[in-house]
Design a protein that fits this description.
Distance between the termini: 49 Å
Strand order of the largest sheet: 13-12-9-10-11-14-21-19
Radius of gyration: 21 Å
Strand content: 25-35%
Number of domains: 3
Bound molecules: adenosine-5'-diphosphate
Amino acid sequence: MFSKILIANRGEIALRIIRTCREMGVKTVAVYSEADRHSLHVKFADEAVCIGPPPGRESYLNIPRIISAAHLTGAEAIHPGYGFLAENAEFSDICAASGFTFIGPKPEMIEAMGDKARAKETMKAAGVPVVQGSDGVIKNVDEARQVAETIGLPVIIKAVAGGGGRGMRIVHNIDELAQNVVMAQTEAAAAFNNGDVYIEKYIDRPRHIEIQLFGDTHGTVVHYSERECSIQRRHQKLLEESPSPVVSEETRAAMGAASIKGASSVGYVGAGTIEFLLDKDNKFYFMEMNTRIQVEHPVTEQVIGLDLIRQQLHVAAGGRLSKRPRKPEGHAIECRINAEDPEKDFRPSPGQITSFHAPGGYGVRLDSHVYSGYHIPPYYDSLIGKLITYGADRAEAIDRMKSCLDEMVVEGVKTTIPFHRALMRDERFRAGEFDTHFLESFNWKKSG
Ligand code: ADP
């Protein structure tokens, strides 16, 4: 095992990684921007290095500064967390070239999966079901029209380099296709520095189901069941749970086997997630692969009984994965508590937390880096913390979450707590009857 690692991230995930390292006796180095001087990841790491001003490109995205910090402190490995440089193939490459173990996959794997159109081709070749659509990148408007006519409307235009719910356009009318393709290309070029787009069938009211995967350096790839992440706003997740209320034992086995096949075909190493859309007929389609630890990994940890950060360190150090199949036991739910105003379409609400009380008790977990008096900087994401409850079954996990949300206090900024409170009381949510469009017809103010 490593004796010291550097964490190239901030916020709750940096703290989450530090906690596991402390248990394992692995020393930690935090890096931080000037805006994060008073952050808990800085306080609880064994060492901390300031790497620059608040904007990401001058600090958490600045590869030379992070590598220098690793050299200065004598770290052996670098954990990228999620976001920032976690899926940057160049960073993985530079870490290795500079003599540090990158706690994540090799650059080739990140590259193969980072381009969504290429990833789809790779999965299709491995026999994983994919959504019908263009063969890779759309070359021109005529080709887009041909594809749309073949697969039928509606279609979704997606940026190959898109992420975080951005870079997607839905088209219901063939007359609007050409214009939308051009707009999607222009937007993608501006946002992701890559204007390539592809087209796929827009699935009617799907559910978002993803499989947690792990690969080791000895050729073993295993899966740890699914997470359901259908409760979304603007194609971004707000609540996740494991297991999914609708995935049967058979569907789980089929999705798990397809995921293992896909990941094995590229010799995948590390933590990864394969995202699928599940349609009304219980057919599933590959959407994308994320080559990192996900925000929502705790729900899997709770039902599978494994610390996935420990597992990441274990395989990065050359350890073997157990091939023993693990089935989910009980039920776990995660609510993303964001500094956002649900009354104003989830607009960010940064500022100072004037008062903070964390809920607790049996089956409760809060992964958070905030405290009373903490300033949420406007430069980064708006996550205050992830509230996770675990229960013997889904109803118990929901009731526990309801009680925790009523107990939790975050003052000074607007948060998503009132939204989640209403959700826990909603009959359709409680019955497990929802899809990715749930929020369009959910009036949380009325339900709450
Ligand atoms: P990102 O990488 O930006 O998160 P994804 O490809 O994971 O983008 O898609 C995010 C969400 O967009 C999905 O969870 C789903 O709600 C919606 N979506 C994406 N592709 C389709 C599709 N073909 N049909 C219907 N909905 C889709």
